[in-house]
Each structure stands twice: as C-alpha cells, then as structure tokens.
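pinging the channel bc i need a second pair of eyes. not urgent but kinda urgent?? the chain im working w is below, pasted from the shared doc
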Amino acid sequence: MNKFQELINSDKPVLVDFFAEWCGPCKMMAPILKDVKNKLGDAVTIVKVDVDKNPDAARQFNIQGVPTLMVFQNGEVKWRQSGVVQARQLEHVLSSV
C-alpha cells in the first residue's frame, strides 16, 4: 500500500480505476483508459486496482461498486465517479485538475 500512497501523492494527476475481474462494465473501461493514456501520454498516470485482491484499498476509499474511477493529485481526491466514463469526459477531468 505504501507504493500506492507514493503514487497518489504525485503532482501529476493519477487516475485510479477500481475494478473487479468479474465485472462487465469494468471490462468496457479498459479500451477507454488505453485511449485516454494514448491521448494524454506522460501527463497522467493510470493505475488499475483490483478490489478483490486489494480489499484494504477498496475499504480505505469506500468503494461500493465497480468500476469506480478516482483522480488524485498531491494525495487529494480531485474527482470521483462510479460506472463507465467516456474517454472525452476523462480527458476533460484530467486536463482540468
């Protein structure tokens, strides 16, 4: 978990995708996240966290449903939304933090 804390304390935006292997909508997020990463490149870090393998992280951030996307910058939550989010919206959120 320390590596995760280190990561979200970055001064560049960190998009965290809390997901589960069994979750259909989570699978829909993978190509969207890839698209966002291709467009924004090194300006953003994208991390996927499996809630079944990381229950402490899910508990710490009160993840009730998957997928839940959160944007952190300097350790602060800048944005949070559950469900599938389109690439354009994510790009907008990430470029405005």
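so The chain is about 40% helix and 25% strand. and Strands lie at 14-19, 45-50, 68-73, 76-82. — does that match what u expected or am i reading it wrong
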